[in-house]
């Protein structure tokens, strides 16, 4: 299982309220104990099926709901739209066993409003004994809770010194050559946000070779690639090691493996490796961005999007030093402003843009349409 980045968090003003929805009484009890012991969460309800989860959403309006995909009466896919309707401000974290079907369903749920998914160990005994899973669960919930707290406050001063492009001239001043490669890093909240940017790019995608590191486990990344291909009608896939990278194609890093790039016989090819995690992540944004800096320089445009932790900061620094530009998603439009916030605080963001402004800005830089 892919490790979740560890980072320090500010203490919340109050424990975040949580509803746990899972058909297993063992799992419900285990999750409730872990959350209670952390001191950061208050479990206000547990549900054994989708109908009960909807009732708890309407009664408690919790900050967070941990929602299992496989439940009786109504499963997570059927229950989610009604949960969102009953309690629009509730952040929904999905949990599920790791299967191809569940990966597809989880991505469907993220398009409907769930913000992240956490695969469960294969067995209940594995769940009970897995310290990594417990750490991942608490880390994701802590990140979600902290993001909710920040979004209720005034924006911090961390990004105040970063230049915010206001027009075509300013945007084009960010790059020394027209970028032909777009490298994207995202984590929590990423699937929906990345799909939005790619959709906004429209015809400009034909001018780009696009590489994406989205923190996801195996199976999920393949389903994510299939989903993008279906939505956009653009060739999208997990690349194989040594594959020549083509313009007009989108490549998604395979879950659990690093995606980098190399030059071979004058061509840019994908490099897929099982190297150690970087900043607790595999695939790691830092790996892709560092190799883009080494082999592409200013021909690469970096984009760091919503996600927890700091993966991508070192890579963004390398890309800036190589003459490339890096866009960071702004805090207000990010589900979690960990990764882009880290890049901004490090002074490595060429521009900080809201989600709806990223696609138009990139179109300005690479051609394929005027900014909206």
TrEMBL record:
What subcellular locations does the record give?
Cytoplasm
> Which segment of the chain is annotated as a signal peptide?
none
4-aspartylphosphate sites (modified residues): 68
Q: What is its EC number?
A: 3.1.1.61, 3.5.1.44
Task: Answer yes or no on keyword Repeat.
Answer: no
The membrane-spanning stretches of this chain are none
Q: List, for all copies, the residue spans of the domain called Response regulatory.
A: 17-135
Modifications the protein undergoes after translation, according to the UniProt entry? Phosphorylated by CheA. Phosphorylation of the N-terminal regulatory domain activates the methylesterase activity.
- What are the residue boundaries of the CheB-type methylesterase domain, all occurrences included? 177-369
Instruction: Show the catalytic activity.
Output: [protein]-L-glutamate 5-O-methyl ester + H2O = L-glutamyl-[protein] + methanol + H(+); L-glutaminyl-[protein] + H2O = L-glutamyl-[protein] + NH4(+)
Q: Could you state one GO biological process linked to this protein?
A: chemotaxis
Chief location bin: cytoplasm
Q: What does the sequence similarity comment in the record state about its family? A: Belongs to the CheB family.
In the record's own words, the domains note is: Contains a C-terminal catalytic domain, and an N-terminal region which modulates catalytic activity.
Q: What is this protein called?
A: Protein-glutamate methylesterase/protein-glutamine glutaminase
